[in-house]
Write the structure tokens for this entry.
Amino acid sequence: MGTEPERGGAAGVFKDRGPFIERDRDGLESRLELMEGVITPTSHFFVRNNAPSPALDASGWRLTVEGDAVASPLELSYEQIRRLPQRTLVCYLECAGNQRSMFERLKGRSANGTQWGTGAVSNGIWLGASLAGVLELAGITPEARSVLLIGLDREAPEGGFRRVLSPEKAMHPDTLLAYSLNGEALPPDHGYPLRALVPGWAGATSIKWLGRIVVTSERLWTRNNTTSYVLIGDDYPTEGEARGRVVTTQTIKSALGLPWPAELSPGRQLLHGFAHSPHAPIARVEWSADGGASWQLARLAGPQLQYSWARFEFDWEARPGEHTLTTRATDGAGNTQPDEVPFNEEGYLFHQVLPHPVRVH
Ligand SMILES: Nc1nc2c(c(=O)[nH]1)N[C@H]1C(S)=C(S)[C@@H](COP(=O)(O)O)O[C@H]1N2
Ligand SMILES: [Mo]
């Protein structure tokens, strides 16, 4: 921690790995126990790459907007995007596979993919331009059915990581082309010079190192909405060319800022955690130390912004022995965490209440 980031290290990730749990070659999981306050410092912001981070230079970089559903295809420079009307959001970003390891741990059935614990999610302050403004400049037509965002990480599957957005989500004023995280230019690992930020949708839609946008009158099917980022399993009907239900909006969750399993000393402990919902601000978080027989309200650490996660805290009288602590979030629209979620092969959107193992000694 605190050292100069390593540029172009063996794995091609520039970030200092100190504060993270390394999940696989290009997956750095945030340790929620290290997070103070509500904003995740950039040094602690999780990283999920499908290929090494490319080292791009803003001066040579361009964003192109094309396709049969734009009237005037465009090419924009970094400076041109910086001069568009600004929008700033406090917004969490979460991998669709966050908590995937819980399918095996809690349901005894392991899902494919990086075995994330609870830290494939972070909360940042983003600055950018509305994607809608750029699509309007390009003359998006009413025929548009798909908006495909393509990254410049050419070693990623399909020659650049890519994902399809619905025109409705693409035209929402809060869907950003972001150039700044926590008051500084995006770091290489988070998509410099420009990335998408799609509030509430699977993190994979927030394409980093964005280079190309293709708007089509046909509904597009690519790897990332047919086999990946699809809920595949007996409980999920298929959709279009997808092997299951396409993941778009994520789910309401909460997690404690403790290692799994946790070890604590006896006595009064101030515990914290984070809760987030794509649907509405968090209204309350409850906690239970008796397996859900009784619940108490945790304190929310501040006013709730629409897309931010909520920090919650509570005091717990820790007595020696083995314990299970459970938290349950509810949002302002009445959504709450279920006791059970059905299995899906790729392990997306796990959001059951978590029985967090805690040993006090
Ligand atoms: N170009 C590109 N964009 C990408 C990815 C990628 O591999 N390449 N990974 C996606 C995934 S799966 C997630 S969860 C988020 C993670 O964003 P972060 O690394 O800034 O936390 O970026 C998304 N954007
Ligand atoms: Mo992800």
About this structure: Residues 69 and 142 are 8 Å apart (CA to CA). Residues 101-107 form the longest helix (7 residues).
